Amino acid sequence: MTARILRIGDDIIAVHAIVTEDGVTLIDAGLSGDLRMLREALAVEGLSLDDIRGIVLTHGDADHIGVAERLRADHGVPVHIHEADAALATGRTPARGVKADAWKLGPSLGFLWVGIRRGALRTRHIADVRTISDGDVLELPGKPEIIAIPGHTPGSVAIRISAVDALFLGDAITTRHVLTGVGGARLAPFSNDSEQTRQSLERLRDLPERRIFPGHGPEFRGTADDLLAALG
Hints:
By secondary structure, the protein is of the alpha/beta class. The chain has helices at 35-44, 62-65, 68-75, 86-90, 105-117, 194-201, 224-231, and strands spanning 4-9, 14-20, 23-27, 52-56, 79-82, 130-132, 145-148, 157-161, 166-170, 173-176, 183-187, 211-214, 220-221. A hairpin with a 4-residue loop joins strand 8 (157-161) and strand 9 (166-170). The longest helix is centred in the middle third of the chain and has 13 residues, at 105-117. It is globular, with a radius of gyration of 16 Å.
């Protein structure tokens, strides 16, 4: 079986599964009400929740930790997150209170409605995580490589999976601003430090992967160099 990417969810809040002959690696875990959606998407591929070998989180915000604790507690799936975001994901530190950079009523209400429908008001923090660091290559399907890109949060990471020609950037960037509806690659909203994010993304220069996935918005087709040029 050739490794492939299974996109679960939508352009507002997406989850990605790396499917290989050795099982599945989940990149981020959506919202707390997404378990049924995940189960159904895997079933279409002839897979189940028991095929998930691990979850790798791009950062620790509520719309990315989603079903991670359910999978850890009920199915024994290990959850990996950068050490700098471990306290955020486990609830030992409170959720961030970063203000939006811009918003429009329609898209903002749409984002809010999707969040409520998919369980954003029922965040379940992760009881136990495995911390990861810059440069780690995890023994999970697809061999995810961790590249620290702090800025959106202190522990934000890029997840490089060469087997599927892809980089997963979480909320370092967006290709569809959830609060304005504006498309195109840009730095994501709700960042602790947007300038630090921009500097962190420079670490991705010269990487050959040509598929880039944000946590919100459609896939960006091109290399990291192309992305950085689009960000301006």
